[in-house]
Amino acid sequence: MATLVAYGMPQKNIALRSATGAPLHKTLHFDSKNFTEKVRDDFEKALRVALQRFIASEVPDVSQAKFLFTPDIKTLSMALATRRYDRIIYYGHALADGVTLAPLQRITAPQIAHALKGSGVKHVDILGCDSSSIGALLATLVPGLAVGTLRGKRFDDFKVDPSTMKIQDFTIVPMQIFHFGGK
Questions:
Q1: 25: alpha, beta or left? (left if phi > 0; alpha if psi -120 to 50)
Q2: How many angstroms separate the CA atoms of 137 and 155, rounded?
Q3: SS3 at position 112
Q4: Contact 15/8 with Cβ under 8 angstroms?
Q5: Residues 2-60: tens digit of each pLDDT
Q6: How far, in Å, are 14, 19, 102, 158 from residue 27 at the CA level?
């Protein structure tokens, strides 16, 4: 089987700092207008490396995963209908309401549960801030599904070329993944 990395929009405004932590008074800005194919490709390359460092001990095949910008439930549903995956890693925003992801358009836990029906996915990791509530709900809605979540805010560290604003390196600050459900 295979792993799908479904990712949404990165954090909108990232204040840049020097290697010593001093503010550079520049902001790395992402929005739906500037998250073009080229910007997305650059972000995805950096995300591949960041996820390899962050989750490879738990998901050794993450370097072989299919990466897909997933702005909405329709994109996720189509991906699951066209290929079999045993694991999904979601990298993006999880909202404080406890039942919603926000890659670009809002996706609720019941919508994800419906998309997973009959897909063969056995494990979902939700790498969004405070994703425990939506993870617990999803594990309840899909019996037998294991769901990995983060407790607390996820921090990302970007190294950017200040003259071009191109991402040079990207690290997801290490934190523990907590699990719900499974067999």
A1: left
A2: 24
A3: helix
A4: no
A5: 999 999 988 887 888 777 778 778 888 888 888 889 889 999 999 999 999 999 999 99
A6: 5, 15, 21, 11
Q: Cα(137)–Cα(132) distance, rounded to whole angstroms?
A: 9
Answer left, alpha or beta for residue 66, where phi above 0 means left and psi between -120 and 50 means alpha: beta
Q: H helices within the chain, ranges in order? A: 37-55, 73-82, 109-116, 132-141
Identify the CA nearest to 68 among candidates 59, 80, 56, 60.
80
Closest Cα to residue 93, out of 154, 179, 175? 154
**Residue closest to 72 by CA, chosen among 35, 37, 115:** 115
Q: What is the DSSP letter of 96?
A: T
